[in-house]
């Protein structure tokens, strides 16, 4: 799972609805892998408004990944920023570990890059 | 003819053996590719992609590979671990999730530019476990899907409806969850080539702009070798009886094939290891 998708993901346990806690899911004991991907600046710029920067920053900190505190004024013209963004959200994959919800405590295990999002009967 | 979804729950039906058989069957792969291309076409995306898409019931990645060819960024979810393992092994580009779509999904509002689903939705109508209530599950699914899409985005489902009342149930629930749209039927006059695409709109692209339901393809296609996946299974057992002609000749398919063979011919890239040349490194 790439970090772009993690940034879109909240806990989906039924009664877990506190917006400040169900997102972003906190990584635990994760192993990362960098996999090269083609960079497309238009895509990055188009996705920027959908990215929750504060959440991405928080996640990046947890993972010891460097990221500017703020999105620059005109990101489309900022090659260095786009390059960093690309590396972080589209080339950084989480291979193993888990994601924990601070709202309800549910732990989503990640195996072979695939998070297990299945819920128990009492969580749906 | 028994329908796969009547035999066992999906995660058991698509166990290791079936997942391998399914993915390795070039006839199935061709049919899934063709339907995926049509589903993407029905998404009505603007030219200047790539887009961020969701593949619902992505399985072993036969549909996702088509999204990869088009350069889209995607996430996929499936309930069958054996299918996902194959997708991961094949190095598809998409982010994979082990997920039961009947439990809904937790993507933030407006995450995706569109969603496709190829040969999956009929599974959700099945009460394969005592605790599975199809109506409730469809409601969970469509309401959370609606949220996860950009306003005006589409979700296109190729599926094998069992009967009219199943279609009515699905449509009714989707509409209740905010979708508009309807059923697009390709080749309605050919029993074998006929394909059903539920084409849903998550609101309007712009205020006051009504989305038009696309027209189904006509039955000018005389070939009737494009059989449904459910009978493909049966066909397989009688292999050799019929040789399969190339899949349908829509412009997009030909283009796609040309591009594929060009890519493969030129760079000599083997079919399933397109990305093995990429640099990978663990990160600490
Ligand atoms: C015929 S396969 C299609 C896979 C892929 N879309 C393709 O075109 O090859 C149907 C898939 O639907 C998945 N499926 C069925 N019910 C599901 C559910 N409730 N949640 C997630 N996936 C499901 C199955 O596990 C299986 O992989
Ligand atoms: Zn939670």
From TrEMBL, chain A:
What Pfam families does UniProt report for this protein, alphabetically? Answer: Trm112p
Q: What are the recorded Gene Ontology BP terms?
A: rRNA (guanine-N7)-methylation; tRNA methylation
What's a Gene Ontology MF term here? protein heterodimerization activity
* Gene3D superfamilies in the record: 2.20.25.10
Q: Family per UniProt? A: Belongs to the TRM112 family.
Q: What is this protein called?
A: Uncharacterized protein
Automatic annotation (TrEMBL), chain B:
List the GO molecular function terms: rRNA (guanine) methyltransferase activity
Subcellular location, record wording = Cytoplasm; Nucleus
The annotated region (Disordered) lies at 261-284
Annotated Gene Ontology cellular components are: cytoplasm; nucleolus
The Enzyme Commission number assigned here is 2.1.1.309
Q: Which Pfam families match?
A: Methyltransf_11, WBS_methylT
Q: Which segments constitute the 18S rRNA (guanine(1575)-N(7))-methyltransferase Bud23 C-terminal domain?
A: 200-282
Q: Which residues form the Methyltransferase type domain?
A: 54-129
Q: Does the keyword Transit peptide apply?
A: no
Listed A to Z, the keywords are: Cytoplasm, Methyltransferase, Nucleus, S-adenosyl-L-methionine, Transferase
One GO biological process term is: rRNA (guanine-N7)-methylation
Is-annotated flag, keyword Cell division?
Answer: no
Extract the InterPro entries matched here: Bud23-like (IPR039769), Bud23_C (IPR022238), Methyltransf_11 (IPR013216), SAM-dependent_MTases_sf (IPR029063)
Report the top EC class in one word. Answer: transferase
Supply the CDD domains for this chain: AdoMet_MTases
What protein family does this chain belong to?
A: Belongs to the class I-like SAM-binding methyltransferase superfamily. BUD23/WBSCR22 family.
Protein name listed in UniProt: 18S rRNA (Guanine1575-N7)-methyltransferase
To which species is this protein native? Coemansia spiralis
The opening ranks of the lineage are: Eukaryota, Fungi, Fungi incertae sedis, Zoopagomycota, Kickxellomycotina
Its gene name is: BUD23
